[in-house]
Design goal:
CATH topology: Cytochrome Bc1 Complex, Chain D, domain 2
Order of helices and strands: HHHHH
Largest sheet: none
Strand content: under 5%
Bound molecules: heme C
CATH architecture: Orthogonal Bundle
Helix content: 55-70%
Shape: elongated
Structural class: mainly alpha
CATH class: Mainly Alpha
Number of domains: 1
Number of helices: 5
Oligomer: single chain
Mean pLDDT: 89
CATH superfamily: Cytochrome c-like domain
Number of strands: 0
């Protein structure tokens, strides 16, 4: 196989991996998002997500949503309620990370 073609194949294999790496958040940002979840979201939903001004956010309830639906709810809020949209503070990727956290790594495993 000629060398330029080999290099071409190498780049082809490398591209999807670069795209995947691009898709993950830094460990620091994940830590910040977790703090945001329990402090900022927690100011309404409770520090342990058991509810307060806002409803409890147990794992079972969070899995009634699709990942995309939950991320959209976090970004846009619930109009007409106290649930604010977080668009200005969170990127779509970060909202998806929070949604994934609520669905799969939720301290309120009910
Ligand atoms: C100012 C108070 C407040 C803050 C801060 C807040 N929420 Fe809410 N949230 C609410 C209220 C009130 C509702 C219920 C809306 C309704 O009546 O449908 C709600 C609803 C929700 C729901 C839907 C619950 C269900 O049972 O369907 C999710 C998910 C949610 N919030 C996630 C979050 C996340 C994640 C954050 C932080 C990024 C956050 N909320 C911050 C008040 C808040």
């Amino acid at each position: 196989m000629p060398l330029p073609f080999r290099l071409f194949l190498l780049v082809l294999c490398w591209l999807p991996m670069a795209a995947l790496a691009e898709d993950s958040l830094s460990a620091e940002r994940e830590q910040e998002l977790e703090t945001l979840l329990y402090q900022d979201c927690g100011s309404c939903h409770g520090m342990t997500l058991r509810g307060g001004l806002g409803p409890a956010l147990p794992k079972s309830r969070m899995n009634a949503y699709s990942l995309d639906g939950l991320a959209a709810l976090i970004l846009h809020g619930v109009p007409g309620t106290a649930m604010p949209g977080w668009q200005g503070l969170l990127t779509e990727k970060e909202a998806r990370w929070l949604a994934d956290h609520l669905q799969n790594d939720n301290p309120l495993d009910e």
